[in-house]
What does this fold into?
Amino acid sequence: MTGPVLVAEHIGKRFGGFTALDDVSVSFEAGQLTAIIGPNGAGKSTFFSLLSGAVAPTSGRIRFEGADVAGQPHHRFTRMGIARSYQITSLFPQLTAHENVRLACQAIHASARGGLWRDRAHYPGLAEEADSTLALVGLLARRGRPAASLAHGEQRALEIAVALASRPKLLLLDEPTAGMSPEETKEMMDLIARLASERTVLLVEHKMKMVMGLADRIVVLHQGKLLAAGTPDAIRTDADVRRVYLGEGRSGRG
It folds into this structure.
């Protein structure tokens, strides 16, 4: 597919009297890795939640592959090919890496066939599917290790494997390097680059060096509005972006 895979049109989101997002319009091209950045309170997390179907916009439309998906239940986003990993790791800590991914694969198959509580024997090939997904993120050698025993960076990679169980066309990553050491961050950057070579990726990230070295395109939010969108070089030299970051810091979260 060429052209935008996901389009936000005049998106607004209010929580009571607070406006978190105000008339944001931006498109995301198929096959690109796009980073969403902005200072503290910019609306990044809210925007990400809207794009992943976790919450519905107050106004505006979200189009995925041309279809208006705004307000659809979250599980419908997964079925359509949109998957998300979260900033806070959410795994079954006592289950092995293989079991975590196998359960995710089983849930996807069961949801599609209407048999969520069927025994896994009804879904042949789950073990192989889980192992191939673990191999994608470099964790096949850790398949038998409980999730709780994995290093922090490995846990984040495992969470991405769980998201990949649905074989998404669009993968959304929420601060994938949060809490990582420099070595773990480098490994995660390499993983994201590999994943982005085969699918469209959006990520929220506050490590600017990583963003500038990894993203094809950057979207900048500020106070709930779209401030700028363009290539890393264009964003690096944008006067409004420089003013915002020089005035409010480089690593805020929204």
